[in-house]
Amino acid sequence: MQTAFWKKPIFWTVFFIILIAVLIPLFFYFFKKPILSILPSNLLGKDIAQRTIQPGHCLILEKKFCSLAEVIDWTNPKGERFKIIGFHLPPGTPLLVPIDGKVTKAKLPDNSVAKGSKAQVVDPYNPNPLWHTFTGDLEFDDMRSPDLKKGATFGHIGNTGITNAGGYNLIFYIIRGIGAKSTPDIDQLKNLFPSIKL
Question: What range defines the domain where residue 177 resides?
Fold first, then answer.
């Protein structure tokens, strides 16, 4: 008489291998944050380590980079003039979220005045929102638009050589409002960069 296939040791061996191959990835998928939080930072990769960076007074970069801010007199395609902030930053410099909010990311079209990529951080629940705008040689791990907490890393300076407005690889400015009623918010910019004349 032939033994039923489920009574054979080879069946159970294969069954347990498949079960483990499915359960271990599911376990890590659902418990990734607690597992990573107990590991020492020197075992973690660049992506995780960047999330623990302390922002400087400018809130968008580490302290050692905030002082590199330079004021630029910018004229937009409509002919409107306003002041923006430019940086010459080394590749890999982490970019930080200055407020709790939603981060949107986009690659700028080739015919755009500004070159590279653009990211904006906004509080979507504010009826008169502030748009913290980053433009230039920006790189992102993905193009999702997550809700992030103040101080979180959302990208870094790239190494493509893209520059704007006189050689700056990062341009930063703040716009208040939506659509045609939006205007540059120099007061908010002064709060983040009190040591430079705007």
Answer: 55-192
pLDDT tens profile 90-110: 999 999 999 999 999 999 988
128 in a structural domain = yes
Which of these, 155, 172, 156, lies nearest to 82 by C-alpha position? 172
**pTM for the complete prediction?**
0.71
Q: For the chain, where are the alpha helices, taking DSSP H only?
A: 9-30, 32-38, 46-50, 63-66, 186-192
CB contact at 8 A, 93 and 61? yes
Length of the chain, please? Answer: 198
Please state, in angstroms and rounded to a whole number, the distance separating the CA atoms of residues 137 and 163: 7
Q: Tell me, what CATH number does 118's domain have?
A: 2.70.70.10
Phi/psi at 59 (nearest 5 deg)? 70, -15
Q: Compute and round to an integer the Cα radius of gyration of the chain.
A: 23
Return the DSSP state at 188. Answer: H
Q: Is the pLDDT of residue 76 over 80?
A: no
Residue 169 lies in a domain: yes
The arithmetic mean of pLDDT across residues 126-155, rounded, is 89
Angstrom distance (rounded) from CA 95 to CA 151 = 9
- pLDDT for residue 126: 83
